[in-house]
Design brief:
The protein has about 260 residues and is mainly α. The protein has two domains: about 55 residues, no CATH class; about 190 residues, Rhomboid-like fold, CATH 1.20.1540.10. The protein contains eleven helices and four strands. The strands form two sheets. A two-stranded antiparallel ribbon has the order 1-2. The chain has a two-stranded antiparallel sheet with strand order 3-4.
Length: about 260
């Protein structure tokens, strides 16, 4: 049997479990041109599927990188700015972890108040926080996920995803702890984590082999390990975000496949 030509790949010698460029990284998909296994770091989105760096260079194929779709994650920045402004307002009135303040009392999620018609609490509660670490941790993860998802989905769909995740988190919190006052963007952030995991899975990448998967697992552990965290809010947001994300990715893929 003759040896393959120098410019042809030898797929028989490559393991689909390992990236052909990084021996220490698991591969989630194969290059659409040469079928070599590639890890998320080597995946370059072309007009159809993903290709490896060598095939992209050799073919001159026009590729779409996340940073080229949107120059800035505007919606993410606006959401962070609103959260920051609300937190400064809370601090100006003396709100702390032990003393919630008037904003939390008036706008935080509270089952009996929502039942009395104060439905806006389902949304406003997601922009309030108690403590510097609370808002800093949420905004850090939001910035990371926003940079990833907003360019992929576009500003409108990303906004819908964030709002749906926030509402799902509020619904989960009301379901498990209706008489507790709940605030924070954690439900919406968990929704973005769920959507990001679904996006990886639909493209053949194991989410647990990515930093997003690790972040999701760590946050789930912290949800059950640390007291005073809204379990219903986190789980509700994750489920809602994963479902809405799946719908968006599914419809997006079908739209791109139309002739």
């Amino acid at each position: 049997m003759s040896d393959p030509a120098p410019d042809e790949p030898a797929p028989a010698t490559a393991s689909f479990d390992t990236c052909y460029r990084h021996d220490d990284r698991r591969a989630g998909v194969k290059c659409q041109r040469c079928e070599r296994p590639i890890c998320p770091s080597c995946m370059i989105q072309a007009s159809v599927g993903f290709q490896c760096p060598e095939c992209v260079k050799g073919s001159g194929t026009k590729v779409i990188r996340p940073g080229q779709l949107l120059t800035r994650p505007i919606v993410t920045q606006v959401i962070i700015a609103i959260n920051g402004a609300a937190f400064l307002l809370q601090m100006s009135e003396g709100g702390t972890l032990s003393r919630a303040g008037r904003l939390v009392s008036d706008l935080g999620l509270f089952g009996p108040a929502v039942e009395d018609g104060e439905w806006w609490r389902l949304v406003t509660s997601g922009f309030l926080h108690v403590g510097l670490m609370h808002i800093a941790f949420n905004m850090l993860i939001l910035w990371r996920l926003g940079q990833m998802l907003e360019p992929q989905l576009g500003r409108v769909r990303f906004s819908v995803l964030y709002l749906a995740s926030l509402l799902a988190g509020s619904a989960g919190a009301l379901l498990l702890s209706p008489n507790a006052v709940t605030v924070g963007a954690s439900g919406a952030v968990f929704g973005l984590l769920g959507a990001a995991a679904v996006g990886y899975k639909r493209r053949g990448v194991d989410p647990l082999q990515t930093d997003i998967g690790a972040l999701l697992v760590i946050n789930v552990i912290l949800t059950f390990a640390i007291p005073r965290i809204s379990i219903g809010g986190h789980l509700g947001g994750a489920i809602g975000g994963a479902l809405v994300g799946w719908i968006m990715f599914e419809l997006g893929d079908r739209f791109r496949q139309r002739p």
